[in-house]
Amino acid sequence: MRCHWLKFLLTLGSSLGKLKKLQGTSPNCGRCQGGGLLMLKGGYAGEILQINLTDEKIRKVETEKYFNIDIFIGGKGLAAYILWKELKRNVEPFSEKNIIIFATGPLTGTLCPATRMCIATKSPLTGLFCDSYVGGHLGAELKFAGYDAVVIYGKSEKPVYVWICNEDVEICDAKHLWGLDTFKVEERIREERRDSLVRVACIGPAGEKLVRFAHINTERYRQAGRGGIGAVMGSKNLKALAVRGNGSISIYNVEEFTKVAKEANKAVLENETVKARKRWGTARTIIFTSDQDLLPTRNFREATFEGAELLSAETLEKKFWIKHKACHSCPVNCGKLGVIRIGKYAGTIVEGIEYETLALMGANCGISNYEAVAYANMLCDMLGLDTISTGNVIAFAMECFERGIITEKETGGLKLNFGNETAMIKLVEKIARREGIGSLLAEGVKRFSEKLNVKSRRFAMHVKALELPGYDARASPGMGLAYLTADRGGCHTRAWPISREISGKATNGTLIERYSIEKRALIVKMEQDMNTACDTLVACWFVKSAVGEERYVKMLNAATGMKLTPTEFLEIGERIWNLTRMFNIREGLKIEDETLPDRVFEDPISKGVAAGRKLNREEVKTMLKEYYELRGWNETGVPTARKLKKLKLDFAVS
């Protein structure tokens, strides 16, 4: 514990230098900062960058004139508002009319433990709202450069990257970077700028080739993974965003903010779950999910994996991990850097391996060799692929191969049997470069299944075209509802009711039975609202429960001069959730789209503690109906005008 506190105090000392005292002025009186900018609140950098790649025009607008801070805060709230306001209905995701938003929150770059950046667009995979989050230092660096967000419009005629260094913003030629992997891009830009602390967000070959689940890579080991945001960058010929800043962040009440931030950091370090996270990362989850029949195995055919121990955190700790890594202002250091020392994968260096990758590229592909999974993980990071979608679509191809739906003729000679790690690795490269069958898999599991026979669609594991993550809904009805209702498709980060189902505790001490549907609608709604509110800050998912909503609200108020209550904070989450819902409905979402794969209804779990379990279609409909009612939506899942007006979303009423 003394080592933890020493690191925190060192961070505190350096971070305090980045905070500027604003106390003594009214939060509404204005403050001249940085070239006459009118800064009405602390916590914000004060400007938003608008960059049009088509005409190469760069515009800076004052943050508080751009959107209503009081009702959207920042992060996801800012991104959702911009997409609603500025993106026209039914714009094709790869059209130059689509936009990408890099958004921070008022706590990003401060002493608040573990803040991140939100990156949002209209997804080329789902056609819906898409936000993805990345840790590291990129968000903080953007704030230090003087910007709360960067909004990218248009399309460049040639490969470019955006360079931001405080007030200097340039659109730079990137022909020499096009075709390079993400690791080399970051190295080249830092060499060009002669600065090893430049923060780079970039795409690899997968983004250039418009793979629909291409990710954005930053600082080598951090990714905004889901929904294909990297492909949207590629469609705009935007190779990278590079940022360097040496400014500071104004804080309304530095003394109060520092006090609460120290309390939050202490709470994080003393939290038992966080302590386990520090030692094991997310990798330890694989034993839990395998024991509880939640682990996707062989394309979700099974829910427990005989090779789970070989992929476990205990194995990685003994044989793979060499050091911890931390994001900006985080005392946890939950990142794990690992290296393979011997064998055919020797020299592989990767951060993780995180649970989702172990689950989807390991168990779900029938692979128990952690070294092969680590190598595939490194390839995905370098080439720019989301490991969840990649593992899911490869597992689907493997099942199709074993069923005879596709043959070696279609696979280019690859024997796509479950457990074939060589074939899995080759497919990663083919997908990223759209070579052979990889070009079909690059479209995602939904589109690929639609090109095959109808029978394959029943085991295409996605919701609204987003490939499912590492939790089998047959053993978790609440997770099934969370997948159904998530605003970006099948996702586990909007709500994760599994812990409540396993513990048997719902809310306020209420007991629930694990496999029942009781109170699932309430649990999912409550978690969605809380997580969305925290995504406006932008807070890390792994420390939210340790920090708690009251401390987040206190830090937000101290940073900005706002006077929010915890109830009002949660209402902000509900507001944004309804806005992303309206965005998706505007883009064509229908109640018929809110369904789960047939497999979870038709194929019972074959063994383990949940043997015989599958979801019941009528019970799922009942949960969905209850959820709509709790949300104040009509029977088809559309927010009512009354609900929208109550949430100050009058502009979304149509």
Summary?
This protein has 654 residues and is of the alpha+beta class.
How would you describe what is shown here?
- The chain is of the alpha+beta class and 654 residues long.
- The protein folds into three domains: 2-250, Aldehyde Ferredoxin Oxidoreductase,  A, domain 1 (4-Layer Sandwich), CATH 3.60.9.10; 272-453, Aldehyde Ferredoxin Oxidoreductase Protein, subunit A, domain 2 (Orthogonal Bundle), CATH 1.10.569.10; 473-542 and 565-652, Aldehyde Ferredoxin Oxidoreductase Protein, subunit A, domain 3, CATH 1.10.599.10.
- The strands form six sheets. A six-stranded mixed β-sheet has the order 5-4-9-6-7-8. A six-stranded mixed β-sheet has the order 11-10-15-12-13-14, sandwiched between helices.
- The protein is globular.
- The termini are far apart.
List keywords for this structure.
disordered N terminus; 654 residues; 6-stranded mixed beta sheet; alpha+beta; Aldehyde Ferredoxin Oxidoreductase,  A, domain 1; Aldehyde Ferredoxin Oxidoreductase Protein, subunit A, domain 3; globular; Aldehyde Ferredoxin Oxidoreductase Protein, subunit A, domain 2; 14% strand
